[in-house]
Sequence to fold (117 residues):
Amino acid sequence: MATKKPFPPKFDLSIRILIYKEGNKCVAHALEMDLKGYAATKKKAFSELKDLIKMQVSFAMKKNDGSLIFFPAEAKYFDLYEKAREKYFKTFKEDEKYCFEDFPLKEIRPTTSFAYA
Fold:
């Protein structure tokens, strides 16, 4: 069992999110939390994942236990994230309006990063 870590008054949450297909569903996978949002589209899967993250953080805050937030995904997903990220940045153009396909840059918080597999 993880050691209880009380919440500080303010904190930043940095989460890597990998988007991939699983069967006929899109999956948005928060790697540091091993939470997955499933939907027919990437945008809906991401929205589902945001709700799950909010619920997990809210639960941990109610319990005043920061250790309840982080449960890392399997290493293979972190490897896949890094490969997808590397591939993306090799083809990135600075003047592009959108980052990681259909997610506008303004919707991506500085503490969140995305990669598509």
Summary: The longest strand covers residues 15-22. Confidence is low (pLDDT under 50) at residues 96-111.
